[in-house]
Amino acid sequence: MNLSSFVIPVLLAAVAVYGMGRRVNVYAALTHGAEEGMSVLLHIVPALVGLLTAVSMFRASGAMEWLSGLCAPALERLGIPPELMSLMLIRPVSGSGALAVASDVIATQGPDSYAGRVAAVMLGSTETTFYTIAVYFGSAGIIRTRHTIPAALTADLTGFLASALAVRLFFGT
Fold it and tell me: How far is CA 137 from the centre of its chain?
């Protein structure tokens, strides 16, 4: 056994001992926290179910492939491989979907290809915007997102463009 397998149990035991030293009912605090977590979960689940359903419908309808083909000329001018359009569309919505798309690109193009490298950098430099907004705003009970979504999508677009630029600068095309 290595040292890293003991970090979590030691950390949990240390927190429990510290709480008992401060005369806190550790078990009651734990169950109260779990109860709050369940209520947050009840607020978040409907948004996540709707989000994942919409993503599945978008992919199954063929709209993603159609939009990818439509945007291919503009992407090529920006230095982004057209096969990454589906990654750019799915990343703000679904992290697991984006990972599946990137895995497919890397499997077909190769991990050291320009498209494979850009896909990997895109995964690391962008966020699952709608998922994150659904989780954080849902848990806080915020209904109106106002400027959050346009700002976050602008940040994602910037991350996509910067990914292609960074790979070009460090590795070439």
Answer: 15
Whole-angstrom CA distances from 163 to 70, 113, 148 are 21, 14, 22
Tokens of 1: 């056994």
- The encoded tokens of residue 165 equal 């630029």
> Which contacts (CB < 8 Å, 24+ apart) does range 95-101 have?
95/128, 95/131, 97/55, 97/59, 98/123, 98/128, 99/123
CA–CA dist 1, 3 (Å, integer): 7
Token pair 């990818």 is at which residue? 68
**pLDDT the model gives residue 152:** 93
In angstroms, the CA 84 to CA 87 distance is 5
pTM: 0.68
User: What are the residues whose beta carbons fall under 8 Å from the beta carbon of 108, sequence distance 6 or more?
Assistant: 83
Secondary structure of residue 111 in the 3-state scheme: coil
For 88-129, write each residue's pLDDT tens digit: 988 998 887 888 889 989 999 999 999 999 999 999 999 999
Query: How many CB atoms lie under 10 A from the CB of residue 84?
Result: 25
Using an 8 Å Cβ cutoff, are 91 and 109 in contact? no
